[in-house]
Specification:
CATH topology of the largest domain: Rossmann fold
Shape: globular
CATH architecture of the largest domain: 3-Layer(aba) Sandwich
Number of strands: 14
Helix content: 40-55%
Strand order of the largest sheet: 2-1-3-4-5
Oligomer: single chain
Distance between the termini: 87 Å
Number of helices: 12
Structural class: alpha/beta
CATH class of the largest domain: Alpha Beta
Largest sheet: 5 strands, parallel
Radius of gyration: 22 Å
Strand content: 15-25%
Length: 375
């Protein structure tokens, strides 16, 4: 009886699929990619647009036959932009041997909480928006398809110095882990400039609609330009309240300011707001136009640069799998590291620590829409 049982177990084991742990390949009908982003909460609109972008890219590949003869499946997780949720979700993702990589997470702090779990289990993480300088240094499986926030601030400093020719700068930043870090980096770059003077720095609650006290201090300090470090929910109320007391103040946003929600929330008050972006929705490029048209059908508005980076991030991962010809995570990771990918956010390559190089376009809100800046 014992021999029969052992024989049965051997046959059963042979019949079971072999899944990828570190270097072996997953055998399944689909190739799974996780999308772990905030689908609910204050930053839900970001996450929802990232998922749409990922789905569009996946559907394009599936319509063309998929990858390695398999269809691609998106597995969506709602991390609520919470480090605690992300830690739990990361464990779920790495426990699914069919998942080859993950698009996520949203904020740098949340991404960095999950990163060690992905690194330990050799699951590729590509964030389309984690901007903390140390994020991609957390492991060889950790990539970002955007730049460190310092690169954006360099463009913003250039706008103030050379395009606007202003000198007195204020910084307003939201009170989150990301806002505290990014706001401090903005201060350092302004202080490092021989042409600029940092006159004030104010921190505000991310969920507050009353920015009067911060605005009063910035105005009293003589700020001519204010670098805004926050999500789109900051810009509308902040701009409206600031323009009431100083209609001439110049506002400069980070790349996540490039979204239609800012115009809807801010109206006339956000006219003249600058932002550096790696993607422009009005581009005449056929691939960009195709993506924008499809995205607008599903979302009702143009995609942000972050959504476009989500679209390209999925494309990078799928192209790496195709280039490798297998689902071996180590081989796919090496293919991502060495990729030269032409996407709608430009030609993307990664440096030794997993940072993508991006070219920025300066955009400004004129006539109720974002347009490329020209003097």
């Amino acid at each position: 009886m014992k021999k029969i049982l052992i024989a049965a177990l051997v046959i059963l084991a042979a019949a079971l699929p072999v899944f990828a742990g570190g270097g072996s390949e997953a055998q399944s009908d689909t190739i799974k990619i996780a999308v772990a982003v905030p689908m609910t909460g204050d930053n839900a609109e970001y996450g929802q647009t990232f998922l749409i972008a990922a789905q569009i890219m996946t559907e394009e590949w599936n319509a063309a036959g998929g990858v390695l003869g398999k269809q691609v499946e998106i597995v969506n997780y709602d991390d609520k932009n919470s480090a605690e949720e992300a830690a739990s979700i990361a464990q779920k993702i790495v426990s699914d041997p069919g998942i080859i990589g993950v698009l996520g997470h949203f904020s740098s702090g949340v991404s960095m909480t999950a990163a060690p779990t992905y690194e330990e289990n050799k699951v590729i993480e590509i964030s389309n928006c984690a901007s903390h300088p140390d994020y991609s240094k957390m492991g060889k499986y950790i990539f970002r398809n955007n730049t460190a926030i310092t690169e954006e601030f360099k463009v913003m400093v250039d706008i103030i110095e050379n395009d606007l020719k202003l000198t007195k700068v204020g910084v307003v930043a939201i009170k989150t882990d990301w806002g505290n870090t990014a706001g401090g980096l903005a201060d350092k770059l302004v202080l490092a400039s021989s042409k600029l003077q940092l006159v004030a720095h104010e921190d505000v609650l991310e969920t507050s609609d009353d920015h009067g006290p911060a605005i009063a201090k910035l105005k009293a300090a003589g700020a001519e330009a204010v670098i805004c470090v926050g999500m789109y929910s900051l810009y509308g109320p902040f701009a409206k309240q600031y323009k009431e007391v100083d209609p001439n103040v110049q506002l400069i946003g980070v790349s996540n300011a490039y979204t239609q929600q800012i115009i809807q929330l801010g109206g006339q008050a956000v006219e003249g707001l600058f932002a550096p972006v790696s993607f422009y929705a009005e581009s005449s490029d056929p691939a960009t136009k195709k993506f924008v048209d499809e995205f607008k059908k599903r979302w009702g508005a143009e995609p942000s640069s972050l959504a476009a980076q989500a679209y390209d991030s999925i494309g990078i991962l799928l192209q790496a799998i195709k280039n490798t010809g297998s689902l071996d995570r180590e081989k796919v990771r090496d293919a991502v590291q060495n990729i030269n990918y032409k996407g709608i956010t430009g030609q993307t390559t990664f440096d030794a620590i997993g940072d993508a190089a991006k070219q920025f376009t300066k955009v400004i809100i004129r006539g109720g829409k974002f347009v490329p800046y020209t003097k």
